[in-house]
Give the backbone structure.
Amino acid sequence: MATLRRLIAVVSALGLVALAGFAYVANRSVGGVSTPAADAGGKDKGAPVSVETAEVERIAMPDELGAVGTLRSNESVVLRPEIAGRVSAIHFKDGAAVSKGALLVVLDAATQRAELAQARASEALARTNAQRTEDLFRRNFVSQRARDEAAAALAVAQAGSELLAARLRQTEIRAPFSGVVGIRSVSVGDYVKEGADLINLEDIATLKLDFRLPDIYLARLKPGQLLVVASDAFPDKSFSARVDAIDPLVDAEGRALRLRAHLDNAEGLLRPGMFVRVSLVMAEREGLAVPEEALMPSGEGPFVFVVRDDKAVRVAVTTGSRRNAQIEIRSGVGAGERVVTAGQIKLHDGSSVIQVDRPATPGAAN
């Protein structure tokens, strides 16, 4: 039994030795295989990388302040009757343009016309009496008092006629200025009370623009400054406006200044009540700019890859303002150089590159 145990131990030891030798030989075989990179001195230079590039451009980079604003009608009014009555006629179509003085709504005026006719008849009689009394006074047939009473009666009759003529005019609602009428809320036959809403009238050929800015900019604000206005309703279009006035009162809660500008709306694209974005141009200037996708972040600051002699050179840059998907570059690159806009992830400083022009971006500044 002891002999058998020794035999098993010897066989096991020989097996472990053989396994260790096989592993050693296998490892040496794998480690001894040569590669092209090793034959070339261990340096795998790789093929040139295709990248998209764009030119560093000099463009207008005005100093701007951004804000949000609300458009308002140049003139706006809700037309209401001064007297109660029944609507007898409507002389406009909803949403139509009307001229100043145009007749819009007529109330039934039968009573007012009858009263005016009666008053004018009384006025005619008073005038005749006054003329007769004046003639008799010249011939000394009546006293001065009779003459004065006849003249006073004529004046009262004339005032009565004018009063009833004014009441008759109140049955006609006319446009106080040229503009566009809204959607009416009454129909022919409706009885409306004094002061009831009939129709709104808006002058939108020119719009007012109200917006607010922090009071720290007060010294840099003045009437006449240019505004660039953008609306989500027209994403590919911008509008120009100019500052008209600065409210002398600063909002004590928000420490903000209220400004009002005017905006030409001859095309009628914009409407009162719309929300718009406002850029106030503080100063005009030019600057170097690159597409925003060319900028790469890092712990030391932003950088770009500049293509020089078909190689990508990493250059740290100082940035400025952002405008129309472009970033202002204040230092690091010069006008006319080309920067990489796509493919940077495959690059390192000194990589060989093949340039491909960057596709045009809709809405980008030229």
